[in-house]
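Entry: ATP-binding protein
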Amino acid sequence: MKSPFQYGTLVDKESFVNRVEERKQLKELLGSGINVMLISPRRWGKSSLVKVAMDELTQEDKHIRVCFIDAFSIKTEAEFYRIFAREVISCAASTLEKRLEDVKQFLKAVSPSITLKSDPTDTLSFDLKLELEEKSVMEILELPEKIAAAKGIHLIVCIDEFQQLALLPGYKSMEGKMRSAWQKQQQVSYCFYGSKRHMMMDISNNSSNPFYRFGQVLFLQKIKKEEWVPFIVNAFHRTNKEISEQQAEQLCDIVKCHSWYLQQLCYFIWSGTSEKVTDEIIEIRTHQLIDT
């Protein structure tokens, strides 16, 4: 049986805890064309929050498309533009054939070479190799608006660990180009989210930086114990196991309601329980968590 508790990956909706107001706020802002900068410490669930909220939004409004870019491992400016173009094209077209058509239609200045890849299920995907010049860079940054306007959709670009881009050589020039292109776009919203508060605040609140007041700044708070307890109890119950409210509260206290560690601790205890959680199981599995 699959555990109802997840950690180390993006949490799916079934394993997602509450965040009703935060999801509503993200959907309202981004769906209305307001850019968002979401800031929280690592492992508080911001990436899962954005993913779940955007999945809900695309179900509620069929004219919205969302692409996700993880900036954490991007090492060069050229790599960012390549991934940016690829993900924007991929989210706006449902088939490989349509994506190839969009490359030809919307990336005329870039003349990319296209690489087709086959995975173990024989599904083809594509990647782009770009020869970048000043003109082609602006064409890539303007790509979301051009595609959205041509297809009659609203496009949302979500960039995780956005502050990592500030570490790239030449970022200051890159930052100015991004702001110049993106601030004019009417059918595109941007969601930047990051875990390094001081860097994200400098990007968004420093009046000398291009992204000053680019959008609404949101600070993610910890999920409260009173929201965690019913989630934990219900998760055990629906998998035919039992944990008391008092025991669920104890788990919250052990890790101070830290989302990642609480999901991990609950997983350890759930996997070590056949029917009913005991104090002995909690003690043994808590030590197991500490030792990992």
